[in-house]
Amino acid sequence: MAVYTEVSDEALTAFLTAYEIGGLLSYKGIAEGVENTNFFLHTTAGSYILTLYEKRVREDDLPFFLNLMAHLARRGLACPQPVRNRDGAALGRLCGRPAVIVSFLDGVSVKHPGVHHCRALGGALARLHAAGSDFGMVRENNLSVGAWRGLFAQAGAQADSVAPGLAERIRGDLAVLEAGWPRGLPGGVIHADLFTDNVFFIGDDLSGLIDFYFACTDAFAYDLAICLNAWCFEADGRFHRDMAGALIAGYEAVRPLAPAEVAALPILCRGAALRFLLTRLVDWLNVPPGALVQPKDPREYDRRLSFHRTARDARDYGRAG
Ligand SMILES: Nc1ncnc2c1ncn2[C@@H]1O[C@H](COP(=O)(O)OP(=O)(O)OP(=O)(O)O)[C@@H](O)[C@H]1O
Ligand SMILES: N[C@@H](CCO)C(=O)O
């Protein structure tokens, strides 16, 4: 459970007096997620999510995330809406942390996605990219290639205690990725963390996207590469080419990839895998004392990297043609 900050009912009740969302009926810590502290709130006016922002989220970036969610919703994308308090502010402070209440989104995430889910995800990702095209704010991706060596420096010395030979493999990937990272690809607002737990379905239909707290301005195809990693591999490293093909086809049915994006897909997938390997490695080795959190296994991304190192082109990811 990701609850880094405990919130007493007195503190929460006092916090809620600034909002017009009725009286508190119940609240509880949410058993998923690793980044922020989340509570489910049930009030006399309805259901909400309360998030207290932790470690990786910089307070300065919150206006970008909150304005983005509002913008995407205006463009018709189903995503949580920040709730404003009586003074018109979405951002508050609770138990010493920046805190926001957002609307509750119906739906459930799928643990074991299939081809159908991947095709729907591809379409939603492309629509998200289109909906963000007239969003006026910019946020650099502070977890892209320029940050990976710094993350490795935080964890590299203990990497081999997690998997034998891991430090050497990461060094090799870093050298290749830093030398060949593609620049100038079509880009704009990307989600940058669209894992299965951040995509909701009702029945077979994709019902919405959550967790925009890594959203940033970067290459669209990098977002697709993150999804290919997150949705199309088993934990043991087995790759589902049919699911990857469906994800790409679902994306291209809305926004066809440019030739440079197709060519860059293998290196973008390799980079996306290294990004999550490194953040997971740092988190795995540094669980804050007392935090209720289950860190995610970095070795899953070590296994995906074995695939990406041998991939030659987009056809290896199931793209037709
Ligand atoms: N607006 C929402 N509507 C419904 N449920 C939500 C909403 N926001 C969050 N949740 C629930 O809370 C869980 C954790 O939220 P979230 O993914 O934002 O946390 P996180 O710590 O940032 O996680 P991650 O590890 O994915 O970065 C979600 O998996 C979902 O079950
Ligand atoms: N989605 C990330 C955690 C949140 O950033 C992971 O699975 O490593």
From TrEMBL:
Where does the Aminoglycoside phosphotransferase domain lie? 27-257
Its UniProt pathway annotation is: Amino-acid biosynthesis; L-threonine biosynthesis; L-threonine from L-aspartate: step 4/5
Q: What is its EC number?
A: 2.7.1.39
Pfam families to which the protein is assigned, alphabetical = APH
* A GO MF label: homoserine kinase activity
Q: Which InterPro entries match?
A: Aminoglycoside_PTrfase, Homoserine_kinase_II, Kinase-like_dom_sf, Pseudomonas-type_ThrB
Q: Which GO terms describe its biological process?
A: threonine biosynthetic process
Which domain of life does this protein belong to? Bacteria
Q: Which UniProt keywords apply?
A: Amino-acid biosynthesis, ATP-binding, Kinase, Nucleotide-binding, Threonine biosynthesis, Transferase
Question: Which reaction equation describes what this protein catalyses?
Answer: L-homoserine + ATP = O-phospho-L-homoserine + ADP + H(+)
Family (UniProt): Belongs to the pseudomonas-type ThrB family.
Stated name of the protein: Homoserine kinase
